[in-house]
Specification:
Elements lengths: L2 E5 L7 H12 L2 E4 H10 L3 H10 L7 H12 L7 E5 L5 H13 L4 E8 L2 H9 L1 E4 L5 E3 L18 E2 L6 H15 L1 H7 L4 E5 L4 H12 L5
Parallel strand pairs: 1-3, 1-4, 2-3, 4-8
Antiparallel strand pairs: 5-6, 5-7
Bound molecules: adenosine-5'-diphosphate (ADP) (2 copies).
The site of one adenosine-5'-diphosphate has 21 residues, from α1, α6, β6 and α9.
C-alpha cells in the first residue's frame, strides 16, 4: 500500500520546509508542483514557459497541465511507496483529479495536515525567503539563515529570491489561495482527513506536530 500525504496551507506557511524534513523522516518522496514548474522553466520546456507566465502574476497554472505534470511525476518508480504532496492540489478540480489518479495507483489521499498562519506572518516569511538555485533548499534571512550568507548549507549553491516573492505578487497569491484553494479545507475535513497544525510556531515545533500525526499513516 502506498501512502499519500497532502500538505495544505497558504503560500509561505512552511509547506516546502516541512515537506523536505518529512520526506527524510518517512522515506516518502517530496513532490512539489512549484518546484516542478521552476525546474521546467530552468530547462526551457514549453510547460515551463507557459507556467512562468502565470507564476509571475501570482495566478494559478491551468488545472489540465498541472494535473498531467503531477500524474507523470507520481507514476515514476521512486513514488511507488507514496509521496508528500506540497502545493498540489490547489483547486477542487485538482483534488478530484488526484483522487482519480491515485485510485489508478491503488491508493488515495491518506492524510491532510493543514498548516495555517495569518497573512501578516505569510508576507514576512515570503519576503525574507531565499531559495537555493540547484535544489530548491529553503532559507529565511531572519528565521532560518544559511551559515554563510548567500550560499546553501547543503550543496553550496547560490541562493536567490524568487521573482514571485515580491510583495505585490504575494498579496495576489494569498487572494488566489483564499478564493481557489481554501475550499479544500472543508473538502478534506468532510472526509475526516484534515489535521490542523499551528503554522505560527517555530520550524522545529511544526515539524514535531507533523511527525506525530504522520506516524499514524507512514513509518
Ligand atoms: P511554502 O512552501 O508554504 O510557501 P516555505 O517552506 O517556502 O513555505 O517557507 C516560507 C519562508 O518561511 C521560508 O523563508 C522559510 O525559511 C520560512 N519558514 C518556514 N517555516 C517557518 C516557521 N515555522 N517559522 C519561521 N519561518 C518559517
Ligand atoms: P508558494 O507555496 O510560495 O505559494 P509554490 O512554489 O507552491 O509557492 O507555487 C508558485 C506558483 O506556481 C504559484 O503561484 C502558481 O502560479 C504555480 N503553482 C504551483 N502549484 C500549482 C498548482 N497546484 N496549480 C496551479 N498553479 C500552481
Amino acid at each position: 500500500m502506498s501512502t499519500y500525504i497532502v500538505l495544505l496551507g497558504p503560500p509561505g506557511v512552511g509547506k516546502g520546509t516541512q515537506a523536505k524534513t518529512l520526506a527524510e523522516q518517512t522515506g516518502l518522496v517530496h513532490v512539489s508542483s512549484g518546484d516542478l514548474f521552476r525546474e521546467n522553466f530552468k530547462n526551457q520546456t514549453e510547460l515551463g514557459k507557459l507556467a512562468k507566465s502565470y507564476m509571475d502574476k501570482g495566478e494559478l497554472v491551468p488545472d489540465d497541465v498541472t494535473v498531467a505534470m503531477i500524474k507523470d511525476r507520481l507514476a515514476r518508480p521512486d513514488c511507488k511507496a507514496g509521496a508528500i504532496l506540497d502545493g498540489f492540489p490547489r483547486t477542487p478540480a485538482q483534488a478530484e483529479a488526484l483522487h482519480k489518479m491515485l485510485a489508478g495507483f491503488k491508493g488515495d489521499v491518506d492524510l491532510v495536515p493543514f498548516i495555517n498562519a495569518d497573512p501578516k506572518v505569510l508576507i514576512e516569511r515570503i519576503c525574507g525567503r531565499w531559495t537555493c538555485k540547484a535544489n530548491g533548499h529553503i532559507y529565511h534571512e531572519k528565521f532560518n539563515p544559511p551559515k554563510v550568507a548567500g550560499k546553501c548549507d547543503i550543496d553550496g549553491s547560490e541562493l536567490y529570491q524568487r521573482e514571485d516573492d515580491k510583495v505585490e505578487t504575494v498579496t495576489n497569491r494569498i487572494k488566489v489561495y483564499i478564493e481557489q484553494t481554501s475550499p479544500l479545507i472543508d473538502y478534506y475535513r468532510a472526509q475526516n482527513k484534515l489535521v490542523e497544525i499551528d503554522g505560527t510556531q517555530p520550524i522545529e515545533k511544526v515539524t514535531g506536530a507533523l511527525l506525530s500525526v504522520t506516524r499514524k499513516v507512514a513509518r
